[in-house]
């Protein structure tokens, strides 16, 4: 009777566990309906955690039932092994053993039935798990379909916004580059004036370089003449020494000595005149060199002024770009602008970028020419 009570109690507990599992499944379905309106990430996390929890509960329940089955079998065999079969026992003991055997047989049948019921419950749990998986997949499929539709709507909206913004930008560009724009007209005028100024400065530098080359050639020729005069002075000195020797030889003849002294004085006087004229020419040449240096310094100052003007023009260009960008931001906030203004903005921005690039190229070329002219002036000295 104790074994029957034990089996009945364990079977009642198993039925209660099955009811709890079914009740939990109903709560899970309610949770799924509640989570249908949640974000996809939360739904995925919830599904993963619930599937893990269900698998763990199923494994624990199956293990408990298996352990309970083996425990009951051990008790049954233990109880069966304690029955005495001695022949010298009385008839009452034999009848008690027979009743116990019948009890054990009924218990064994009960256990087999309970095992069969447990197997059926396990199969039911598997079927419920499969059904829940199908429901979860259908819910996930619906969520993914909703998400894909939402993403397609967002993509269509983005395409519409891109087309609208491109039209707006085109209008702003066209307006910025229109000849009617006073800022752009002023920029073109300043650029033309700066270009003319740079051309004039290049011509002045070229003429100054030519003049420096001519002065350099004159200075070289003067240096050659000075060397020749020095050579003549050396020759005159050597001739004076020779004449002195001759004077020592013919010192007894006053007339010859007077003639030689007169010739030497004449040579010295001619040499002094030539030296004075050469010094005068050298002084004039150095004065011209100083004048050219002053002129080159003025040209460098003019170049610096032109460079500053180019920098100022670049700042104005950046300011114009800022104005255009400000117009772009203003126009991007007001989507309902006129289509013609949008097209004009895009054209103006494109032309502004091209003009800025051309201006940078022009500036780099001018700076390179200025550096070459400065190097040419320095090398000429």
UniProtKB/TrEMBL annotation:
Highest taxon above the source species: Eukaryota
Coiled coil: 191-218, 282-316
Keywords linked to the UniProt accession: Coiled coil
InterPro entries: WAP (IPR037490)
Protein's name according to its UniProt entry: WPP domain-associated protein
Organism annotation: Ananas comosus
Species lineage: Eukaryota, Viridiplantae, Streptophyta, Embryophyta, Tracheophyta
């Amino acid at each position: 009777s104790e074994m029957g009570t034990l089996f009945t109690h364990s079977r009642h507990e198993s039925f209660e566990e099955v009811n709890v599992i079914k009740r939990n499944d109903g709560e899970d379905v309610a949770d799924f309906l509640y989570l249908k309106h949640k974000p996809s990430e939360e739904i995925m996390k919830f599904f993963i955690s619930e599937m893990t929890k269900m698998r763990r509960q199923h494994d624990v329940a199956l293990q408990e039932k298996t352990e309970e089955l083996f425990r009951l079998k051990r008790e049954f065999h233990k109880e069966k092994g304690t029955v005495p079969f001695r022949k010298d026992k009385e008839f009452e003991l034999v009848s008690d053993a027979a009743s116990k055997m019948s009890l054990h047989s009924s218990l064994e049948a009960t256990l087999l039935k309970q095992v069969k019921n447990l197997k059926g419950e396990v199969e039911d749990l598997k079927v419920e798990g499969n059904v829940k998986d199908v429901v979860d997949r259908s819910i996930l499929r619906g969520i993914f379909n909703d998400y894909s539709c939402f993403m397609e709507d967002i993509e269509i909206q983005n395409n519409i916004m891109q087309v609208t913004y491109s039209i707006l930008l085109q209008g702003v560009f066209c307006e910025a580059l229109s000849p009617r724009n006073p800022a752009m007209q002023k920029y073109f005028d300043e650029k033309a004036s700066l270009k003319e100024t740079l051309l004039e400065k290049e011509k002045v530098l070229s003429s100054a370089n030519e003049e420096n080359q001519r002065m350099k050639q004159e200075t070289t020729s003067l240096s050659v003449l000075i060397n020749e005069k020095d050579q003549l002075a050396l020759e005159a000195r050597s001739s004076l020494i020779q004449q002195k020797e001759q004077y020592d030889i013919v010192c007894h003849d006053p007339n010859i000595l007077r003639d030689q002294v007169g010739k030497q004085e004449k040579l010295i006087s001619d040499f002094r005149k030539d030296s004075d004229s050469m010094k005068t020419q050298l002084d004039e040449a150095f004065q011209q060199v100083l004048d050219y240096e002053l002129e080159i310094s003025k040209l460098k100052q003019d170049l610096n002024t032109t460079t500053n003007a180019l920098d100022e023009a670049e700042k104005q260009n950046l300011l114009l770009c800022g104005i255009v960008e400000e117009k772009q931001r203003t126009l991007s906030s007001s989507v309902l602008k006129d289509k013609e203004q949008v097209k004009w903005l895009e054209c103006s921005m494109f032309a502004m970028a091209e003009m800025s690039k051309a201006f940078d190229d022009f500036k780099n070329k001018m700076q390179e020419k200025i550096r070459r002219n400065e190097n040419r002036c320095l090398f000429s000295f």
